[in-house]
Design brief:
Helix 10 crosses helix 20. Strands 3-2-1-4-5-6-13 form a 7-stranded mixed beta sheet, with helices on both faces. By secondary structure, the protein is an alpha/beta fold. The protein folds into 3 domains: 167 residues, Rossmann fold (3-Layer(aba) Sandwich), CATH 3.40.50; 57 residues, no CATH class; 160 residues, 3-Layer(aba) Sandwich (Rossmann fold). It is 47% helix and 12% strand.
């Protein structure tokens, strides 16, 4: 048994500890890795706990495009073998290539590379990854996500070679996570639903209790979503001027400049951004938030008939991967608005984690649509979901929350809850008015379907505060202990299955 791990930035520490647990508890001895960021690579090379037969650094592959001669015939061969049906989905997924997104400032809509450079980048990465997998021959690959050319190529090539991909996905239910062989639905959860179809699952009681608690007191599955907006106010924008904060900020920025100019050749290409651009981004956001957007928000009138569209993070994998043809949210909102019954409003609310990044002109464009109301993002999204007549997620958890609250849902992207018969997937935009009409007039809720899905999720998932382990935890002992259940679940998928 050989396991390949995608070791992405801070996930390198999580993935490495998973490997250590697999070695100590489950007898897996052979590992290799696909690594992002040089400091992660150096950590893995210098540690002595796990021996990796090979570590492929994405940054090193990327640099090769500079001297790579474009081979169109080779690309045509790759397109025929790995195309979806062409190779653009691999490139369009990559935020660095397509959006020049080295910081979150919005919008970064100018590609960082030319068309030919993109082709050469794809070429070098595909060539290196195919050689890597042919040499290492792992039995399974652990993905924390699929978020760029490298991971997408690794995923698709692995499937063609018969290597089992396992992607770590949030279950959007409490703090639970599942492993799936696909990124757009839960493969083993669906198998469990089919398996338990003619028998009662022991997890149904847990499912019933969860849905009862949720309906009595709806809360987001992740508390960080609720807390995200607490810092978005005018007073907080000036805290950096406090003497202590200003000194810390200045010291940090000097260090950033020093690293940028002394170690540029060693930096990960995805983080090798000009620090002055980063400073400009911060300043623009401060001024934008000082001006505020409160005067743009419309009244929240829950008693009127309305549909709900939650704005999504962008550019973000959730839409780039799961809904690649619905990434222009303003365009989509216009289509939804004109598809509603004449007396309906369409409520649009900003994503809590995006609230400080989008400029005022974006919201002003939305407000030009006659039947659209822009709702203050500090209003609890679940309250809006509970009052809405119909929900329109691209890939938002609002769709799952709507299904739990017995609301009609028309989704535009691929998500696990799309398997529910009462959730409709819009595949042709010209059919949207008819889908809305049917959903409002003929909606039929199936409680048992929801319970069966929840029961299967509880059976196939583990509780895991991944955000805390990935982004916040600095104690390596706690980070290691926090990954034990993750390793056990992975072992179940690759050994016991």
């Amino acid at each position: 048994m050989k396991v390949c791990l995608v070791l992405q930035r801070q996930f390198a520490y999580i993935g490495h500890n998973v490997a250590l647990w697999l070695k100590e508890k489950h007898g897996v001895q052979n590992f290799c890795g696909y690594v992002y960021q040089r400091w992660s690579y150096d950590f893995l090379k210098n540690q002595k706990d796990v021996k990796y037969s090979s570590l492929l650094l994405d940054e090193d592959i990327h640099k090769e495009y500079l001297n790579e001669k474009l081979d169109l015939e080779y690309l045509k061969i790759l397109e025929k073998k790995y195309g979806l049906p062409n190779l653009w989905p691999y490139i369009a997924l990559d935020r660095v290539l397509m959006f020049n997104q080295v910081v979150r400032e919005y919008p970064y809509n100018t590609p960082a590379y030319t068309h030919e450079e993109m082709m050469r980048i794809f070429q070098v990465k595909a060539r290196a990854i195919i050689k890597f997998l042919e040499t290492e021959k792992p039995d399974a690959i652990l993905f924390p996500n699929i978020g760029g050319i490298g991971t997408m190529v690794l995923y698709e090539v692995a499937k063609k070679m018969g290597i089992k991909p396992l992607i770590l996905l949030t279950a959007c239910t409490e703090d639970r996570y599942v492993f799936s062989e696909k990124f757009d639905y839960f493969t083993d959860v669906e198998k469990l639903i089919a398996k338990n179809k003619n028998q009662s699952s022991s997890y149904l009681t847990q499912a019933k209790q969860f849905i009862e608690n949720f309906r009595n007191k709806p809360e987001p599955y992740h508390p960080d979503v609720l807390n995200a907006l607490k810092t978005i106010n005018r007073r907080n924008q000036l805290k950096f001027l406090y003497p202590t904060n200003f000194i810390k900020s200045l010291s940090w920025f000097v260090q950033v400049i020093k690293i940028y100019f002394t170690n540029r050749k060693f930096n990960d290409y995805s983080d090798n951004f000009n620090p002055w651009y980063y400073l400009l981004d911060r300043v623009k956001r401060k001024f934008r938030n000082l001006i505020g957007t409160n005067n743009l928000y419309d009244s929240y009138t829950p008693e009127e008939d309305f549909g709900f569209f939650p704005l999504h993070l962008e550019p973000e994998v959730s839409t780039l991967l799961n809904a690649p043809f619905y990434t222009d949210q303003i365009c989509l909102i216009k289509q939804i608005a004109r598809s509603l019954p004449l007396h309906f409003k369409l409520y649009v609310k900003e994503h809590p984690l995006m609230a400080e990044y989008r400029p005022r002109k974006y919201y002003k464009e939305l407000k030009k649509i006659p039947n659209v109301k822009l709702i203050n993002p500090k209003i609890n999204g679940l309250d809006i979901v509970s009052k809405a007549k119909i929900i329109f997620p691209i890939t938002s958890t609002a769709g799952w929350e709507g299904a739990l609250l017995k609301k009609p849902v028309i989704a535009f992207g691929d998500q696990f809850f799309n398997i529910l018969s009462m959730v409709k997937k819009c595949k042709e935009i010209e059919q949207l008015p008819f889908m809305i009409q049917d959903s409002l007039e003929n909606y039929k809720y199936n409680e048992q379907e929801v319970l069966n899905l929840l029961a299967a999720i509880f059976e196939d998932s583990i509780p895991l505060n991944l955000h805390q382990l990935w982004e916040q935890e600095t104690d390596m002992t706690k980070k290691r202990l926090g990954t034990e259940q993750l390793a056990n679940l992975l072992a179940k998928k690759i050994i016991n299955d």
